[in-house]
Design a protein that fits this description.
With about 120 residues, this protein is α+β, with helices and mostly antiparallel strands. It is about 30% helix and about 25% strand. It is globular. The two termini are about 30 Å apart.
């Protein structure tokens, strides 16, 4: 079976703030005091080379766009980071922009991703 890759959105279901990781990030985690905590007020956009990756049962996981070309996927994710910059939370560790966002709905983020992908595809 071929892996499906592309852009996803994740939204936690709970109101209390907590650390939410995919498995790979959990293994690289450092000091828990410097790790961002999120709740249902936040959403995350990201790229995955295999949508089987699980964030746990406590999240809405939405596959937004399927992109099989890994180079194109990575380039589009970087483009989205610029588009979503105003919503992105800063890392507690080093202040860099994260993929976790606030003050944007899942529906609005999905709409923006779809619109940007259409423009992005036209420019390639």
């Amino acid at each position: 079976m071929m892996k499906k890759s592309g852009i996803y959105l994740v939204q936690p279901a709970q109101l209390q703030l907590k650390i939410i990781y995919n498995q790979r990030d959990a293994q690289r985690a450092g000091d828990p005091k410097t790790i961002l905590k999120v709740n249902k007020e936040n959403i995350k956009f990201g790229q995955s080379n295999d949508f089987v990756e699980i964030f746990g049962n406590d999240v809405k996981f939405l596959e937004v766009i399927s992109i099989q070309d890994v180079k194109k996927l990575t380039k589009f994710k970087k483009h989205l980071k610029n588009i979503f910059k105003q919503y992105c939370l800063n890392s507690l560790k080093d202040g860099r922009k994260m993929d976790w966002m606030k003050e944007i709905s899942l529906e609005k983020a999905k709409k923006i991703i779809l619109e940007e992908h259409k423009k992005f595809d036209e420019n390639i």
